[in-house]
Amino acid sequence: MSEALYEVSEYEDRAVKGREAPAPVGHNSGVTIAADRLRSIIERVERLDEERKALSADIRDIFTEAKSSGFVPKVVRQLIALRKIDKNDREEQEELLDVYRQALGEG
Amino acid sequence: MSEALYEVSEYEDRAVKGREAPAPVGHNSGVTIAADRLRSIIERVERLDEERKALSADIRDIFTEAKSSGFVPKVVRQLIALRKIDKNDREEQEELLDVYRQALGEG
Amino acid sequence: MSEALYEVSEYEDRAVKGREAPAPVGHNSGVTIAADRLRSIIERVERLDEERKALSADIRDIFTEAKSSGFVPKVVRQLIALRKIDKNDREEQEELLDVYRQALGEG
Amino acid sequence: MSEALYEVSEYEDRAVKGREAPAPVGHNSGVTIAADRLRSIIERVERLDEERKALSADIRDIFTEAKSSGFVPKVVRQLIALRKIDKNDREEQEELLDVYRQALGEG
DNA sequence: CCCGGCGTTAATGCAC
DNA sequence: GTGCATTAACGCCGGG
Question: pTM score, two decimals?
Answer without folding.
Answer: 0.69
